[in-house]
Amino acid sequence: MKLLLLPLSSVGLVAARSTTTPPPGLTYLGTYTIQANDTLASISVSVGRGVCALARANRMADVELMPRVGMEMLVPANDSIVNDTSCLLKEPTSTLPCIYGGPHVYTVVAGDTLAKVAKKLNLDVSALGNSTGPPPPGASSSSSPSVSVDTPLQVGRGLKIPQCSPSACQVQPYRFVYGTYVDLAASFNTTVGQILAFNPTYSFSAATDVDKAPVITLPNNCRPLSTNITVIS
């Protein structure tokens, strides 16, 4: 464990509030069936809708985390900002050595590297090291070799996340009506990685009925509880 002195004024995850509610009159042209090698960018070109319009209409956790082949995505009828990139995960302007609140384990998803996980959690990549938790069911339990920050990680593997102590998040059920995890993170003072960690099996939803929109577990208002922070590895 490491003891750090962090001023409260500089460590809060403060971000501009993003839209997490559907635009007025949101309707759908229909659906698109996922093909092999599809990306959200390629689908955007095929259907003539912006990447973020597609991501938000389908409540995507991560624009790089694509649905399986054969699954269907909604195609929104209205898209006033075709080149909108506000749903894409940006490089953080500053990083932390630990996360506020929790959880302590992040489950690796397709395409993850240590660098990408650190970005999702607003962490310095050195905070993650090469320490991994339990392997996914059926996988070898032997120790993982050291990997570079850009080496793809084993999907389903648990990655230990350093936590700041004392710190806290509120955790509550949330009906995910519209948007992406980037929008939720900005609106609720958390990180994309923390939302992913609390919802390891969720990727998207094409429900057109708001009452049938998915309910996820949302960590929010994540914050330090002291200026004296201990990093729990």
UniProtKB/TrEMBL annotation:
InterPro entries (UniProt xref): LysM (IPR018392), LysM_dom_sf (IPR036779)
Keywords: Signal
Bias-annotated ranges (Low complexity): 139-150
PROSITE patterns in UniProt: LYSM
UniProt region (Disordered), positions on chain: 128-150
Signal peptide positions (record): 1-16
Keyword match Zinc: no
Keyword Signal carried by entry: yes
Every LysM domain range: 30-75
The organism's place on the tree of life at top rank: Eukaryota
Protein name per its UniProtKB record: LysM domain-containing protein
Source organism (scientific name): Sporothrix stenoceras
